[in-house]
Amino acid sequence: MTFNVLLYVLIALATVAVMEGFAWSMHRFVMHGRSGWAWHKSHHEETEGIFEKNDLYAVVFSVMAVALFFVGQALSPFILAIAWGITLYGLLYFIVHDGLVHQRWPFRYVPHRGYAKRLVQAHRLHHAVEGRGHCVSFGFLYAPPIDKLKQELRRSGVLDRERIERSVTAQGSVHAPVR
Ligand SMILES: [Zn+2]
Ligand SMILES: [Zn+2]
């Protein structure tokens, strides 16, 4: 492997890390913000059919990644490496969020241990609260420790202890909060 290829691989991997930070702030401040909630709301409620309005975010980001491939092809392999990083992040996001957590794939697999389990439980706690306020855990590839999230939810007082526990365990593929 030449030095250049190694450099581009590192840039792509660094882009994945940066994308998690970017996705966190998008999710926290735009999607759960006043204007972005119009699309994201569909993802926090029971929806019918395969698609939800929230998928439009994925479409927008995919279009941006494709555009970056064209720009990179014309201008610089650095930009191309970034485009690959964004694409890899999108793939990981799909596997973790749409697959592992929300089971939007044709088979059922729920992780019962390790970091994958923590990812799933953290995102279930994200969906535990009704509405756009007081939610926890906005990341997709990084999940804070579950006890910390439970504590945060208890402290904000929006959910009682029993409902918090039920949210961690009982929620399957659904998006809506467990009652
Ligand atoms: Zn959300
Ligand atoms: Zn979700």
What attributes does this structure have?
179 residues; mainly alpha; 7 helices; 63% helix; binds zinc ion; membrane
Question: How would you portray this structure in words?
Answer:
The protein folds into two domains: 3-101, no CATH class; 114-170, no CATH class. The protein is built from seven helices and no strands. The protein has helices at residues 3-31, 37-40, 55-75, 77-101, 114-126, 146-156, 161-170. Helix 3 (55-75) runs antiparallel to helix 4 (77-101). The longest helix is centred in the first third of the chain and has 29 residues, at 3-31. One zinc ion (ZN) binds next to helix 1.
SSE topology sketch:
Elements: H1 3-31, H2 37-40, H3 55-75, H4 77-101, H5 114-126, H6 146-156, H7 161-170
Helix pairs in contact: 1-4, 3-4, 4-5, 5-7
This protein binds zinc ion (2 copies).
